């Protein structure tokens, strides 16, 4: 939701009484934070073509199950900023997007989880640590995560890590991204026996869901090259540096059937390769994009393009952005997949619920 830079969001309920908030699901960061007694945060946002969504704001003072995390806690990573061990633990997270951050203090409260176990008729209440975000800056104020960020990374402070440590669930979770934007996140899910598996190679400095890609195929034309990439549901598009970016974009461009769009300064498009659509065009064909990952599993990209309205018609673009740093598989490449993040066995597993034989055999979609 929320325009071209869309992410996947989930309604979560925390505290007592339970308060719901609409948080962005982010496998690329660790801390779960909510807007909280804030001096700089978003109170609501206009939905595309719909009414304004009014947001709840969390307050520890209104939850009977809330408690402050002291600086003396082993969960307080920024204890050096404390003047006393009895003070409330501060946090500050600075994100890759320019000028984007969240600042506040750590608290503990209950996260209400529904269960698939028929024997349990009420939600599971899991005690977790999260950020009481008093100040949000940058893209958090204009749509990226206006009502909180659900950290799903590999550090000890992330939601999956806490749930596993407290024996609420096994050390694994899954996310299902349907093409219509509806999805599901399931903690403790280890997937099925027929899923493909790809080893996770966490970076030493900061563990992430880092995997190796060994091959790119565009429209049946294949290039062998090996590079690492981070699976990050908190990034809207896929970012690749060279040589992977040049291979995927130039091959896509050579096989594209429509006229390439001549970009203007007023377009404000993040993509380099876009193609024109007429005002009455109801369908389009574009080259199929496949990635082969280490271990042999394939990521058959269901949605490699972004369709954008423009005056007199519209354009569709290869939704891949050139990166000057790390390679990121964004949420757009995860569409149509049930992806398991097994942190115990250290692998990603993917199962495509909507692939058909005809789709596997065609070079254009």
Descriptive notes:
By secondary structure, this protein is mainly β. The protein folds into two domains: 161 residues, Acid Proteases (Cathepsin D, subunit A, domain 1), CATH 2.40.70; 166 residues, Acid Proteases (Cathepsin D, subunit A, domain 1, Beta Barrel). Helix content is 7%, strand content 39%. The chain has three helices and 25 strands. Strands 1, 2, 3, 6, 7, 8, 9 and 10 form an eight-stranded mixed sheet that branches. A five-stranded antiparallel sheet has the order 12-11-24-25-13. A five-stranded mixed sheet has the order 19-18-14-15-23. A hairpin with a 4-residue loop joins β1 and β2. The protein is globular and about 65 Å long. The chain starts with 8 loop residues before the first strand and ends with a helix. About 2% of the residues have low confidence. It is a lipid-anchor; GPI-anchor. One of its GO terms (cellular component) is side of membrane. This is Peptidase A1 domain-containing protein. Its main location: membrane.
Number of domains: 2
Question: What structural category do the secondary elements indicate?
Answer: mainly beta
Kindly report how far apart the N and C termini lie.
24 Å
The CATH superfamily name of the largest domain is: Acid Proteases
Helical content (DSSP H or I, runs of 4+): under 10%
The beta-strand count equals 25
The biggest sheet, with number of strands, parallel, antiparallel or mixed sense and barrel status, is: 8 strands, mixed
Can you tell me the CATH class of the largest domain?
Answer: Mainly Beta
Organism: Gossypium mustelinum
Family: Belongs to the peptidase A1 family.
Protein name: Peptidase A1 domain-containing protein
Subcellular location: Cell membrane
């Amino acid at each position: 939701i929320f325009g071209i830079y869309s992410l996947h969001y989930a309604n979560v309920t925390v505290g007592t009484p339970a308060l719901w908030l609409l948080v962005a699901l982010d496998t690329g960061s660790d801390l779960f934070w909510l807007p909280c007694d804030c001096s700089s945060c978003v109170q609501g946002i206009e939905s595309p073509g719909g009414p304004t969504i009014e947001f709840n704001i969390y307050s520890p003072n209104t939850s009977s199950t809330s408690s402050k995390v002291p600086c003396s806690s082993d969960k307080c990573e920024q204890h050096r900023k404390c003047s006393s061990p009895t003070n409330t633990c501060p946090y500050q997270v600075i994100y890759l997007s320019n000028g984007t951050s969240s600042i506040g203090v750590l608290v503990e409260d209950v996260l209400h989880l529904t269960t698939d176990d028929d024997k349990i008729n009420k939600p599971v209440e899991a005690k977790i640590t999260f950020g009481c975000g008093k100040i949000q800056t940058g893209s958090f104020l204009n749509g990226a995560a206006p009502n909180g960020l659900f950290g799903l990374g590999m550090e000890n402070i992330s939601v999956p890590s806490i749930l596993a440590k407290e024996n609420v669930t096994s050390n694994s979770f899954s996310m299902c991204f349907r093409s219509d934007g509806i999805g599901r996140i399931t903690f403790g899910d280890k997937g099925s026996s027929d899923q493909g598996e790809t080893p996770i190679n966490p970076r030493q400095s900061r563990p992430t869901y880092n995997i190796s890609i060994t091959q790119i195929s565009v429209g049946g034309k294949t290039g062998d090259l090996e590079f690492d990439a981070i699976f990050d549901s908190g990034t809207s598009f896929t970012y690749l540096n060279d040589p992977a970016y040049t291979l995927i974009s130039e091959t896509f461009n050579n096989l594209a059937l429509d006229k390439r769009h001549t970009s203007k300064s007023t377009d404000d498009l993040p993509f380099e390769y876009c193609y024109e659509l007429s005002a009455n065009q109801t369908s389009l064909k574009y080259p199929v994009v496949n990635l082969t990952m280490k271990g042999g599993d394939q990521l058959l990209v269901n949605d490699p393009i972004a369709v954008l309205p423009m005056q007199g018609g519209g354009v569709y673009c290869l939704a891949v952005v050139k990166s000057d740093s790390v390679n990121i598989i964004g949420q757009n490449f995860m569409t149509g997949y049930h992806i398991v993040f097994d942190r115990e066995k250290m692998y990603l597993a993917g199962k495509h619920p909507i692939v058909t034989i005809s789709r596997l055999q065609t070079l254009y979609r």
